[in-house]
Design a protein that fits this description.
Heat Shock Protein 90, 11 helices, globular, five-stranded mixed β-sheet, Beta-Lactamase
């Protein structure tokens, strides 16, 4: 693919393309040049898309439409680009935020016509009267992805074998720990010395912590390799609820059809929040999970009608090692959310219930209403 020339040339191409798209052309030399550049863009073998500062599509050339199966100017960029690897959206968002060109090589193995590589570049565009970061363009040269060679296949097989082996060993260790903890509990009935009984209780507690840590590695061994994806938030929370025994506590949700781009492990975040409320909030009767828009971000709120969290505990609430089982729950929740730039904080007050707020940045959430 022939690269777009200088920064000035790129600006001229995109500005003119927008003018022709919306205005149907213009008279004189500028109109002729605009028509020429529009034909050039349309004829380019590589994909081209232009997005404005509001994340609306200004222009899509036929090659880009072929990649994402749609070519509607004026639609939100995250909708048009949804079929493509998320790196495309991330590059455009980065350019609009920083004004710095982003170049990357993206392997897309899930394309319906076969695996391809996108050697891409995203760069800022100036529009008349709209400032230096008014728009961004993304373009790429496209070529077939190489099939995995024998070495890659061997590496993948080795990883799978290692994972399976660790699962077997972990299962055996957990079985032995269960036996050990069980005998420690039985031993308490035969011990009269209070000091020895205290030692036994501490040994039992240590065994349970080890058990929890091993289960932690089982649940999250894929943390580094789980790819983020678009998910319906209400379905994620529903899946989390199925993993928790809420007993008589009512759990209500108000999430609409909102979708989030996150690690599949985000379900664990909601499992942790619900379990924490059930375990620690005395007199709890209700947990509510809702979503609200704050400027361009989405804030997902999980709140309860319990007594709230003491002020002294809030400072260390998300630290590793805080709370029961060495405090991996809330710490890990923050780590999972940070994979796609989200964050979590506690914003409740003592006596008014706990309130956890998950802030999801623009570009990582979308309205999931039918398109």
């Amino acid at each position: 693919m022939v690269p777009l020339g200088s920064r000035q040339d790129r600006d001229k191409i995109i500005i003119t393309g927008e003018t022709v798209k919306e205005g149907g052309g213009s008279n004189g030399e500028g109109g002729a040049a605009g028509s020429l550049w529009r034909h050039v863009l349309d004829a380019m073998p590589g994909p081209v898309i232009v997005v404005d500062a509001e994340r609306k599509v200004l222009y899509v050339n036929p090659a880009m439409a072929n990649l994402c199966n749609r070519a509607d100017a004026g639609r939100p960029a995250d909708e048009v680009l949804a079929p493509l690897p998320f790196e495309v959206q991330r590059a455009l968002h980065s350019v609009l935020r920083t004004g710095t060109q982003v170049s990357s090589s993206i392997t897309w193995r899930e394309w319906e016509k076969g695996p391809i590589v996108l050697d891409s570049s995203a760069f800022p565009i100036s529009l008349p009267g709209k400032g230096p970061l008014a728009a961004a363009a993304w373009t790429a040269s496209v070529h077939p992805a190489e099939s995995p060679d024998q070495e890659d296949l061997a590496i993948e097989a080795s990883r799978k074998k290692g994972k399976d082996l660790l699962s077997v060993v972990r299962h055996d260790i957990l079985n032995q720990l269960t036996i050990l903890i069980g005998f420690l509990q039985f031993s308490e009935d035969f011990i009269d010395d209070p000091q020895v009984r205290e030692f036994l209780l501490k040994e039992e507690a240590a065994g349970q912590v080890i058990q929890a840590l091993i289960e932690f590695t089982r649940d999250f061994q894929d943390l580094a390799v789980e790819d983020p994806r678009w998910m319906v938030l209400d379905s994620v929370v529903a899946s989390a609820r199925e993993r928790v025994d809420a007993k008589s506590v009512t759990i209500v949700t108000d999430l609409g059809a909102t979708e989030v781009y996150a690690s599949p492990l985000i379900r664990h975040v909601f499992v942790t929040l619900i379990k924490n409320a059930l375990d620690h909030a005395r007199g709890l009767t209700r947990i509510a999970i809702s979503a609200e828009r704050e400027e361009r971000d989405l804030v997902v709120v999980c709140e309860d009608d319990g007594p709230g969290i003491p002020e002294a505990e809030r400072k260390t609430l998300f630290d590793r090692g805080h709370g029961r089982n060495r405090g991996y729950g809330l710490w890990l929740a923050g780590e999972i959310l940070s994979i796609t730039g989200a964050s979590i904080r506690e914003a409740g007050r003592m006596g008014g219930g706990a309130r956890f707020e998950i802030r999801i940045p623009q570009g990582m959430w979308r309205d999931g209403r039918p398109r």
